[in-house]
Design goal:
The chain is of the alpha/beta class and about 325 residues long. Helix content is about 30%, strand content about 20%. It folds into 2 domains: about 230 residues, P-loop containing nucleotide triphosphate hydrolases (Rossmann fold), CATH 3.40.50.300; about 80 residues, no CATH class. Helix 3 packs parallel to helix 5 and helix 4 packs across helix 5. The protein is globular and about 55 Å long. The protein starts with a strand and ends in a 10-residue tail after the last helix. Bound molecules: adenosine-5'-diphosphate and magnesium ion.
């Protein structure tokens, strides 16, 4: 559906933002581009809707080389959502969304009815339609931004860090909404983020980029976590999800005291309940050991993940058997295999 063929972008100052990118995004899927700041995610995205032209290589949308399509026509079929919703400040929320169908020739009445439908679709209460953008929270503005991007019913949606400016709790809600929306709409979505947690939650496939605009791994989230292609991916994946690093530890059991310092540091960023021992799982969700209590977490993990004696961090599958074994180990907190 979207295809990058040997795409390179070198800016005039010599910066190589994207380096020989070969990647295919399947129709009807959510594909995530993830990587640290400056690794070429935005540039890659913008070559799809011709906001940036490649230096060499080809970008195809639906089999058509985008260079042969004029930008305005191309962009009618490609919604674009960025970090700042970029709403028109002097128009109401409803009119912000209605503008798109109006511009494509709908009557005012029909356009507004369509806008109301879209606002409902993205989970905004009807009464907010008459407000102005400044009267909405950041999360609500992003929802309006998504509604507006969907207004032309484009088959493709590009989303560049759409939720990054929103606080973490609201962000989780927006992610859930997007997944729900996608189940209904079946768009081809390319979603950019620097947040690996967001990437593995949202992406059906995830492309990991590194500095210099190089794609290092393109895989399903589970594979990325359990079989990182190289040390860069494993440390990137591990930076935000310290326990995942343990899939690289040799052996079957780890005494808490023996957990390498680097890995402890990685875990320090996790939301760990201050007084809880943390059960460490590897990339296959097998328990590997316990980490001692930390006082660095600012909020406890979600209630359903708090277990007597430990906090389970997993991708959501309760591993009853493994857990029971862990909790009944002789020391209560020692090695589990
Ligand atoms: P990301 O979205 O992953 O943070 P970008 O695609 O924005 O990364 O940028 C990739 C690299 O290209 C960075 O080094 C950035 O400074 C550089 N870059 C982006 N836009 C331009 C530009 N217009 N001119 C020169 N360099 C640019
Ligand atoms: Mg960017």
């Amino acid at each position: 559906m979207i295809e990058f063929r040997a795409v390179t972008k070198r800016f005039d100052d010599g910066t190589v933002a994207v380096d020989h990118l070969d990647l295919s995004v399947a129709a009807g899927t959510i594909t995530v581009f993830v990587g640290p700041s400056g690794c070429g995610k935005t540039t890659s995205l913008r070559m799809v809707n011709r906001m940036v032209e490649p230096t060499s290589g080809t970008v195809l949308v639906d089999g058509v080389d985008v260079r042969g399509v004029d930008p305005a026509t191309l962009r009618r079929g490609i919604g674009y959502v960025i970090q700042q919703a970029g709403l028109f400040p002097h128009r109401t929320v409803l009119d912000n969304v209605a503008t798109v169908p109006l511009l494509s020739g709908w009557t005012r009445r029909k356009a507004r009815a369509r806008a109301a439908e879209l606002l409902e679709l993205v989970g905004l209460p009807r009464e907010l339609g008459s407000r102005y953008p400044v009267q909405l929270s950041g999360g609500q503005q992003q929802r309006v931004g998504v509604a507006r991007a969907l207004a032309a019913d484009p088959p493709v949606l590009l989303m560049d860090e759409p939720f990054s400016a929103v606080d973490p709790v609201v962000r989780e809600g927006l992610q859930d909404e997007l997944l729900r929306l996608q189940a209904e709409l079946d768009k081809t979505i390319v979603f950019v983020t620097h947040d690996i947690d967001e990437a593995v939650k949202i992406g059906e496939r995830v492309a990991v980029f590194r500095q210099g605009g190089r794609l290092v791994q393109y895989a399903e989230p589970d594979e990325l976590l359990s079989r990182p292609a190289d040390e860069f991916v494993s440390s990137f994946v591990g930076r935000d999800r310290g326990y995942r690093r343990l899939s690289f530890v040799e052996g079957t059991g780890i005494e808490p005291r023996e957990v390498p310092t680097a890995r402890e540091e990685a875990v320090a960023g996790e939301r760990v309940a201050p007084d809880a021992w943390t059960l460490v799982l590897d990339g296959e969700d097998r328990p590997r050991g316990w980490l001692p209590p930390r006082s660095t977490g600012d909020s406890a993990p979600p209630a359903e993940r708090v277990l007597p004696g430990g906090s389970l961090y997993t991708r959501g599958t309760p591993l009853r058997g493994a857990l029971d074994a862990a909790l009944s180990s002789p020391s209560g907190l020692g090695v589990v295999v």
